[in-house]
Amino acid sequence: MAAHHRQRFLPQNKYRRCLYVAALLALLTSVSFASASTVYYQPLNMDKQLTDREWAANLDSLRGIGIESGVIQWVQYGDETFGETNGWLAQRMQMWTQRSPVWLGLYADPEYFSRIDQPANQQAKYLDMLLDKNAKTLSAWQTWVSANTNNVQGYYLPMELSDYYFRTPASQQVLKQQLTHFTSKLDKPLAISVFASGTLSPSAFNKWLISLTQTGVHIWLQDGQGTQALPIKTRQAYFNVLACDVGVISELFIQTSVSPFHARPMTNEERSTANLSIKPCHQKLSFSLRYLRPIPHPLPLP
């Protein structure tokens, strides 16, 4: 992800995308993005320009559209710590936890998408390093977590998994072992997101995700509506067989540029015409607060 979004490296078209409007046709209920009960927030320093009053108005508006919790995507991005536990981000998160629970995102590596695409042994070493940095970030925030423990639902690893990066049984097994070891040290649940590259078949992809959920980690699959890196029929094939234990992240944006990444909010018409059929059993999330409309005080777009 660039300073605010992900750049992807895929087999057919080098680039992929970022993080999430699902509509249910499967038994055949139609819903909009408002059916998501959880929304992502991707912190950027430009968000400091919103006043406390504007931030509070945005947070207060969420429950009115059915959003009951948030995912703070990260509290550290590379060397950027947003002031750590006494900075502007911590203050805004405090306001959020006074209204609803959040998932606390940890450390994001700006070079993740280039460094994760390595041979299996080098990939494993990189993941060990990355998970260690996430553990250190959590340690630095532990006092804040303890003070807000009733409204911290769990922790979020801001790294995106894909069947392109973990396409072999050996790499999948190493990842599973690493996640199992990491979660064994935590006092709360852990979540991570995934995107489908088209490398594995839908059935093989679903089998892999089920294996990941067996570690106890919450797995959330991006729907690809915003980036459209895969054709809608291809994406639908993955959702047709998706296990109910896997959550679905609806992308609320339309990508307008690959490099650098730029996007704009989806329009109502785009949401109504670009729907996937998603079974109602899945947890629903949306990406992200920056693209959510309507909202009293929209966040600035990079």
What do these coordinates show?
The protein is of the alpha/beta class and 302 residues long. It has a single domain (33-291), classed as TIM Barrel (Alpha-Beta Barrel), CATH 3.20.20. Helices cover 31% and strands 19% of the residues. The protein has helices at residues 52-62, 88-97, 112-115, 120-140, 142-147, 169-183, 202-213, 232-240, 268-273; strands at residues 38-41, 69-72, 76-77, 102-105, 107-108, 152-162, 190-195, 218-222, 247-251, 253-257, 262-265, 284-287. The strands form 3 sheets. An 8-stranded parallel beta barrel has the order 1-2-4-6-7-8-9-12. Helix 4 runs parallel beside helix 6 (169-183). The longest helix has 21 residues, at 120-140.
Q: Summarize this, please?
A:
By secondary structure, the protein is an alpha/beta fold. The chain has helices spanning 52-62, 88-97, 112-115, 120-140, 142-147, 169-183, 202-213, 232-240, 268-273; strands at 38-41, 69-72, 76-77, 102-105, 107-108, 152-162, 190-195, 218-222, 247-251, 253-257, 262-265, 284-287. The protein has a single domain (33-291), classed as Glycosidases (TIM Barrel).
